[in-house]
Amino acid sequence: MKTPNIFEISSKELSQDAFFAWLIRWGDPELKDENPNLFKAAQDFIRFLIASDEEHEIERARIRRQWMGIDIIAWITTNKKKYLIVIEDKLNANQHGNQLERYKKKVENHCKEELTKKNDKLTPVYIYLKTGNDSLRIQKRVEDEGYRYIGRMDVLKVIRKREVENDVFNEFKSYLEEVEEETNSYKDLSKVISSWRAAEGFYIELQKRIGEWSEWRYISNSAGGFLGFWYNFKEIRENVEVYIQIENTIKDEGGNIKLLIRLKSKKGKLNEPEELIKKLNHFAKKHNDIAKKHNDIAKKHRINIIIKESVHRSQTATIATVNNAFPNEGDNIDIDEFVALLAWLQDMLGEFAEDYKEAVDQGKTS
Questions:
Q1: Residue 119 pLDDT greater than 90, yes or no
Q2: What is the spatial distance between Cα 189 and Cα 254, in angstroms, rounded to a whole number?
Q3: Among 57-71, 150-164, 197-211, 268-282, whose mean pLDDT is lowest?
């Protein structure tokens, strides 16, 4: 029987905040002899946060939680500098509003005051620490705001360095390893449609391989919501784009994942003429026929693009579904094959978008 893990049971950010604050506090030299390996692991973590080598001898480590609303603040004194480490700690949620900017301003003002009043120069270090999964867009946004993004694997690389005899330390390491393992189980389709972490892992892997702008996140709707992935936006007329979407309705007993072609209006509702459906049908038939004869992946999985009869009048709408894009439940997803399928679909949509845009410019659509 699997033993219970406190960090799985108490899967809240406050528990994680407490662990990181606890670990930093163990990096203070006054605790050196209490548990030498835990002390060294804590110093490893502090040096990782301040991006320093062992020449920076850590002389003092103090922490506070929720100081000025910030999750964790650490005052670190080394033989070379004094640091004020700001940690915005996230489990699964993302930042909201101008949270990071506000914290940064507060800390910058505090550092100026300390220098003026006490002649105490503090070097601020801004950390966004996330042990859940994030899209590349979220990571870039954090970095653009002047924070260093630290993910789950970054933390694991540090805390795996040493054998530490401490239940709290090892429970947290075990918890992160389980999250990582589940995220990396994305090749199993049954996992992808039943586990949020595996579903996120699938999208993370796609973002690495696609090589162009893409985004994924949860979308709430009246049907229960889904985890969506979007990319390959092509303009077909002013303020209207066609794009590729993966829609995954994740359920414990197994959800449903679909590969879709959709339209998006940047201004108002879609109001596309019948000509759009006719042209898309033409390109879909052409590519379906070519694929059946010459595309090994399309032939193997009997992939077929099914076009809708009309375009729903809303800001976004599905206009086609790619049948058999995913294997049967219980089978593995071949990532290389799926990326090749997406490339085939991109080619078709690129041709369609160019042709339709040309027709619009020439006034050949109603």
A1: no
A2: 9
A3: 268-282
φ/ψ (deg, to 5) at 133: -110, 145
**Is 304 exposed, middle or buried, given 0-12, 13-18 or 19+ CB atoms closer than 10 A?**
middle
- What tokens were used for 231? 């990319």
pLDDT at site 94: 75
Among 21-25, 32-36, 66-70, which is the least confidently predicted range?
66-70
DSSP string spanning 302-316?
T-EEEE-SS--SSSE
As to burial, measured by CB atoms within 10 angstroms (0-12 exposed, 13-18 middle, 19+ buried), residue 20 is buried
Q: Which amino acid is at 253?
A: E
**Nearest-angstrom CA–CA distance, 174 and 153:** 13
CA distance 359 to 283: 14
How far CA 254 is from CA of 192, 198, 201, 325, in Å, comes to 9, 12, 17, 17
Return the structure tokens found at 202.
């699938």
The more confidently predicted of residues 173 and 66 is: 173
Mean per-residue pLDDT over the chain, rounded? 88
According to the model, what pLDDT value does residue 220 have? Answer: 92
Beta pairing class for 70-78 and 58-67: antiparallel
- Contact by Cβ (8 Å): 260, 322: yes
Each domain of the chain, given as residue ranges in start order, spans 6-182, 212-361
Sequence-separated (6 or more) residues with CB below 8 Å from residue 104: 86, 124, 126, 145, 146, 147
Give dist(CA 196, CA 329) in Å, integer.
16
Q: Beta strand pairing status for 123-130 and 148-150?
A: parallel
Note the helical H segments in the chain.
Answer: 6-9, 13-25, 36-50, 99-118, 136-144, 152-159, 167-183, 189-192, 196-210, 274-294, 296-301, 335-361
User: Which pLDDT tens digit goes with each residue over 28-45?
Assistant: 999 999 999 999 999 999
- Percent of the chain at pLDDT > 90 equals 57
User: Which two structure tokens, joined as six digits, stand for 286?
Assistant: 């052409």
Predicted pLDDT at 118: 77
Which has the minimum average pLDDT: 55-64, 149-158, 299-308? 299-308
